Structure formats: structure tokens, C-alpha cells
Amino acid sequence: AHLDRIDAVDDRVHAFLHVDAEGALEAARAVDAARARGDELGPLAGVPLALKDVLTQKGIPTTCGSRILEGWRPPYDATVTARLKAAGVVILGKTNMDEFAMGSSTEHSAYGPTHNPWDLERIPGGSGGGSAAAVAAYEAPLAIGTDTGGSIRQPGAVTGTVGVKPTYGGVSRYGLVAFSSSLDQAGPVSRTVLDAALLHSVIGGHDPLDSTSIDAPVPPVVEAARRGATGDLEGVRVGVVKELSGEGYQPGVEARFAEAVEVLTSLGATVVEVSCPHFTYALAAYYLIAPSEASSNLAKFDAMRYGLRVGDDGTHSAEEVMALTRAAGFGPEVKRRIMLGTYALSSGYYDAYYGSAQKVRTLISQDFANAYAEVDVLVSPTTPTTAFRLGEKLEDPLAMYLNDLCTIPSNLAGGAAMSVPCGLSDDGLPVGFQVMAPAMADDRLYLVGAALE
Ligand code: GLN
């Protein structure tokens, strides 16, 4: 049914870069056969899922939305992919994304943009617009995204889906093609909070193949989602982040956010305003740290190891082939990030840019720590506005970057965060409510998120 749905709508939505119909049917039949034999089934046996094209799946094209990886078929499964398969999940295909996860609209994909199912003229968010659009358009009930500065939550907000960035280290990064290694985190995209919790508990947990993986059990996310669904928020302390409101926030977004906060109060939560003064600098710090790490991570695309190779005709040196391949294979946003990052890391500028950004990162972590001494979760709108029009911010990188204002702080501090739908703005488009929690307290997101549904 989901493959039929993809056939019917994906030429308009363009959520998928690759649909593996044969593999999906084979996986589904294997679940049927196991059921017929009376075998014990995995917790998500037979449930279809769309996988962001930045995670490897053995033998299946993985492009990261880039020309430079065109034709590359990874020889191994990411840990997330392996755990999905072990749980009986049926992987439908790979979803569209901004090239190497750099962007907020999926317009930076080398394979053309994804369209928001709510209004095909609008962006589905980014970088994981394909995963969010696939779920919003009923092409898949579940998807996997990755979130470096908001790429699961912001698409979730603008497509009316649930998106979770687990605690940094809570979900393995093995086989997740790195953008910014100290920030990247894979997580669930779904239509309900409980679905996200079930998916989270399947992909989460320690992995010896990822040196930053936390060696602790997955927080009790499913139990928390079930409790939240009963509407019991007695004793939960909620902090509204003062800095994430005001100028630049669409009135319809602020109105839906305020109503959702009222709902939390009515369910027994205590709501207070909290100040996180350094959040104002989060965007600036992020756009130094993330490009710095990216400039280093993307050095491995050298025309020798993966995918594309340009100018290999016997007349060019190895260095020329490398330069020609990178010139042809990377899009403008990726080149912008590589140049920004290389500059920020260069000797003479390192202390002034990268070093300062790291200090700001510490101050932001301290803001969170101070806030969590008073409250259990922090809340804000997920994005300042609803989905903007395709093309609207493409020529203005700074306007595009401003979309990540509310989502970036939790990446910098390594905590957990969720976007849950909280109604429609005056323009008829979905609004996202963000819940943030301390590292390894992901269950609190599910408690509050499920109570809001
Ligand atoms: N939009 C942000 C960026 O362009 C975040 C991307 C992400 O989370 N992968 O860097």
C-alpha cells in the first residue's frame, strides 16, 4: 500500500531519491513467512520506513543529496539501519535532503527540491525535508532523520509531523555520513509521539562502533509516551525560554505556542519563564563550529575513494582530478561551508573564530544547566515561522540560517529535543512546539509531547 502511495504522489512531493520496491517487498514477505512459522517477531516487524539518504544501507545507493556520491553503493549497514532490519522494519527507500545535510529547505539537494505536502509551492524544511514529507504525505508511517542544527525538528514543525533529536550519543552515528561530528544525531520522524518512542527504542542504545555512543540503557521513552497520553503532567516543571520569542516570530506561531503552554498548565504542569541569555549567540557559534567540522569531514571526498571522478583522462595530475571532481561534485552551499570552515580553522584565525565559538558553546551548556536546576523541560516554538515558499530564501544564506534559531542550542549542548505539532497558524500551515530536556532525559520529551497531542 505504501509503495502504491509513493507511486501515486511522489512525482509531486519528491520525498524519495531512491525507492527500493523489490527489497521492501522481500523484507515484508520475510516478516510474513516468520509470522507463519510462528517465529518471534521484532518489535516493529513489517512496519514500513523511509531512510534519510545520509545513512548507509548495504548495496543501496547513498548520495547524501550530492553529485559527488552519485553511483556509490555502501558495502555496509549503518548501525541504525542494521537495528531497523533486526526489528523487522521494511525500508522503503532513501529520502531527499539538502546536500550533506546543509540547509533548512531541502532546496540544496543536487537532485531537486522536495515539496511540502501541505502546499506544494512551499518548502518541507531541511535538511531532512524528504523524511518529513514522506511521513506527512502518508508515503511512510515512520522515517529516520538526522539533526545537526534542527534538521529533524524544523522539517517536523513545517510538515505537521513529530520529530525527535535524541541526546547526543544516544543513537549510534556509525554509518551516518558525517557533517559535523560533535553535533550530528539520528532520530525518529513519525505522525504520533508514541510511534516516535517505539522507533527511538529500536534505534537507540550503546554501540561500540561509535566512540561517542553513551553506554547506558535507552531512557524509558515508550512508558513516558503512554503516561503523557493520559494527560497527567502533575509535578512537571516547564520553562518557557524568554529569548526564543518576540521580534521575527510569526503572530500565528506565537498564538499556537501560547495555547499549547496553556494546555500544559491545565494538565497540572507548573509553567515559569526562564532566561537563557547566551542563546542569542547560538546561531553565530553554530555557523563557525559546524562548517569547521564539515570542512574537515568532507576532505575525504577526494575523487579516489567514492562515487564521482572528473578529469581522469591521463592528462591531469591526481591533485587536478581531485580539484575538478570537488568543483563539479559539490554544490554552492557545501562549497560555502567548506570555505567558511577552512577559514575559521586556519592558523591566525583559529582562536578568534573556532576557539571563541567553542567558548560560547560552553556558556550555552551552562545556560541549560542553570535552567534545568529549576525546571524539567524547556519549551519554545520549533521555528519562528511556518513553511516559506520555495525559492524565497535561496539567494540569502543568512535568512536561511535564521530558521535554526530555536533548534540549534540543544545541538550545541548535546541535550534531547522534540518538535510536536500544535495546530495551524493563520495561514493554514502547521506550527511546531519544541520540548527540550537534559542529556539522557529523553523520556521527558515524550511525556510532555504525548500530553499535547
Ligand atoms: N539548517 C542547519 C544547517 O544548515 C541544520 C542542518 C542539520 O541539522 N543538518 O546547518
TrEMBL record:
<keyword id="KW-0547">Nucleotide-binding</keyword>
<feature type="active site" description="Acyl-ester intermediate">
    <location>
        <position position="151"/>
    </location>
</feature>
<dbReference type="GO" id="GO:0050567">
    <property type="term" value="F:glutaminyl-tRNA synthase (glutamine-hydrolyzing) activity"/>
</dbReference>
<comment type="subunit">
    <text>Heterotrimer of A, B and C subunits.</text>
</comment>
<comment type="function">
    <text>Allows the formation of correctly charged Gln-tRNA(Gln) through the transamidation of misacylated Glu-tRNA(Gln) in organisms which lack glutaminyl-tRNA synthetase. The reaction takes place in the presence of glutamine and ATP through an activated gamma-phospho-Glu-tRNA(Gln).</text>
</comment>
<feature type="active site" description="Charge relay system">
    <location>
        <position position="52"/>
    </location>
</feature>
<feature type="domain" description="Amidase">
    <location>
        <begin position="1"/>
        <end position="445"/>
    </location>
</feature>
<keyword id="KW-0648">Protein biosynthesis</keyword>
<keyword id="KW-0067">ATP-binding</keyword>
<keyword id="KW-0808">Transferase</keyword>
<dbReference type="InterPro" id="IPR004412">
    <property type="entry name" value="GatA"/>
</dbReference>
<dbReference type="GO" id="GO:0030956">
    <property type="term" value="C:glutamyl-tRNA(Gln) amidotransferase complex"/>
</dbReference>
<keyword id="KW-0436">Ligase</keyword>
<dbReference type="GO" id="GO:0005524">
    <property type="term" value="F:ATP binding"/>
</dbReference>
<dbReference type="GO" id="GO:0016740">
    <property type="term" value="F:transferase activity"/>
</dbReference>
<dbReference type="InterPro" id="IPR000120">
    <property type="entry name" value="Amidase"/>
</dbReference>
<dbReference type="InterPro" id="IPR023631">
    <property type="entry name" value="Amidase_dom"/>
</dbReference>
<protein>
    <recommendedName>
        <fullName>Glutamyl-tRNA(Gln) amidotransferase subunit A</fullName>
        <ecNumber>6.3.5.7</ecNumber>
    </recommendedName>
</protein>
<dbReference type="GO" id="GO:0006412">
    <property type="term" value="P:translation"/>
</dbReference>
<dbReference type="Pfam" id="PF01425">
    <property type="entry name" value="Amidase"/>
</dbReference>
<dbReference type="InterPro" id="IPR020556">
    <property type="entry name" value="Amidase_CS"/>
</dbReference>
<dbReference type="InterPro" id="IPR036928">
    <property type="entry name" value="AS_sf"/>
</dbReference>
<feature type="active site" description="Charge relay system">
    <location>
        <position position="127"/>
    </location>
</feature>
<comment type="similarity">
    <text>Belongs to the amidase family. GatA subfamily.</text>
</comment>
